[in-house]
Write a structure and sequence with these properties.
The protein is 35% helix and 0% strand. It is an all-alpha fold. Helix 4 packs across helix 5. It is flat. Among the domains are: 37 residues; 45 residues.
Length: 146
């Protein structure tokens, strides 16, 4: 019987043409254990939670030494992702992106997204580009790039 081979109910259904629900009922009635969905073997024990501290001075952010650099990047209109990339590339920062993101959010609060216009058109009627200014194009009359 396929259930004894450790096949999934989907594989049994594919091979026999019998619905998974029917197969599961029959196998349970025969006393054949089914593996739970998604269980491909023994599950790893859950990871222990990291210790939590309520003392704000107990754990300074890894971003603190780069505070001035981060502030300048934010004033220049950059967000946390390119700032983190620059920290890694230029300063050898070893912290994760999430560390920089939390630091920025803690210093400046969450940013509210800008309003965006929604343009409704029939399929294929228009093309839309949501980013950038486009490539330089040479004007045929003046010869200048614009």
């Amino acid at each position: 019987m396929p259930g004894r081979l450790g096949w999934s109910l989907r594989r049994i259904e594919k091979q026999t043409g019998i619905r998974r629900e029917t197969t599961a009922t029959c196998l349970k009635a025969a006393g054949i254990p089914l593996r739970s969905p998604g269980a491909w073997g023994e599950r790893a024990p859950p990871k222990p939670a990291k210790s939590v501290t309520t003392d704000p001075t107990a754990s300074d952010s890894a971003c603190q030494p780069y505070r001035v650099f981060i502030e300048q990047a934010l004033l220049a209109g950059r967000n946390a992702m390119p700032t983190w990339q620059d920290l890694v590339d230029l300063h050898g920062f070893t912290g994760a992106y999430e560390t920089v993101k939390r630091f920025v959010r803690k210093q400046h609060g969450a940013q509210t997204p800008e309003a965006r216009a929604v343009i409704l058109t029939a399929p294929g009627e228009e093309a839309q580009v949501d980013y950038g200014t486009g490539p330089l194009v040479r004007d045929s009359t003046s010869g200048l790039r614009r």
